Amino acid sequence: MAIVRLRNQDGRPGLRIHGLDLHHLSWLCAHKSRADQALPHNVAQNVLHFLRVRSQRHSECQSPVAATARSTYAISRNRQLVRFGAAVCSVPANLGQVVAVTAGFYHTCAVKACGELVCFGSPGSCNVPPGLGPVAAVAAGQHHTCAVAGNGQLVCFGGNQRGQCDPPPNLGPVIAVAAGLSYTCAVKADGELVCFGSNSHGQCTVPQDLGPVIAVAAGYAHTCALKSSGKLVCFGGNDFGQCDVPPDLDAVVAVATGPHHTCAVTAHGSLVCFGKNDLGQCLVPPDLRLDV
């Protein structure tokens, strides 16, 4: 989750972001735009400017942890990538310092301190395009990867059997990306949500009345989008109720999806999960409160 301050330490208006996960830009835009309105042009430009600056300066850290079904990858305090669990993908010995990590089924991708994207594991999923340059965000699906370049361009590679690596030619700059099982969703600079790839369960059929969004998360075959008002909208596969957003859910500031379940962080710091619960993945400890 991102921790965002809208004023600098000296009290002047500004923007300071720590622990930024570019999959969840909710805090950034929720404080900068009004409910159910398109993202202001200056907000989109500020986000893209931040992406460019972050790619060039490498001073902020995105996602410090990524998990697969059998292993976990975490970034230590000295920015070394540590793996534990089953050795699905061993960390390269000469990887160096990293600032972000994401994991697919059989491959892992890390953003180095210099902005370089390095992927390892299943060969078919790890062919980073030559000349990609520094990246600002990355998301891994089952066998594919999508990265946001410093200028906001979305670049995808790896398995493409369902078109999950074929962004629309007129997509333009994006501010957030999520990779599902065999599909991809991107939030454009104006807040429009665009999804492409497998649509077997309607996970790429964006509701016509959705409007601008500020964050997106992708499961196996369901998608959840967050509006600036804090409203959470989910669509696609719903076999286990993973798209049944509780009607009394408070305003949401961050969202994450598992294969068949969804978890949302509310503005009050509560974690609410719904969907498949066969292993207790939706049983939130009653005394859990998150720092928002």
Protein described:
- The chain has 292 residues and is mainly beta.
- It has a domain at 23-216: Regulator of chromosome condensation 1/beta-lactamase-inhibitor protein II (Methylamine Dehydrogenase, Chain H, 7 Propeller).
- 8% of the residues lie in helices and 36% in strands.
- The protein has helices spanning 26-30, 41-57; strands at 3-7, 13-18, 65-67, 71-75, 81-85, 98-103, 107-112, 117-121, 135-140, 144-149, 154-158, 174-179, 183-188, 193-197, 215-218, 222-226, 232-236, 252-257, 261-266, 271-275.
- A hairpin with a 4-residue loop joins strand 19 and strand 20 (271-275).
- The chain starts with a strand and ends in a 17-residue tail after the last strand.
Uncertain runs are: 1-61
Number of helices: 2
Q: Give me the side-by-side strand order of the main sheet.
A: 3-4-5
Overall 3D shape: globular
Number of strands: 20
RCC repeats: 191-229, 230-268
Pfam families: RCC1_2
Organism: Symbiodinium natans
GO molecular function: guanyl-nucleotide exchange factor activity
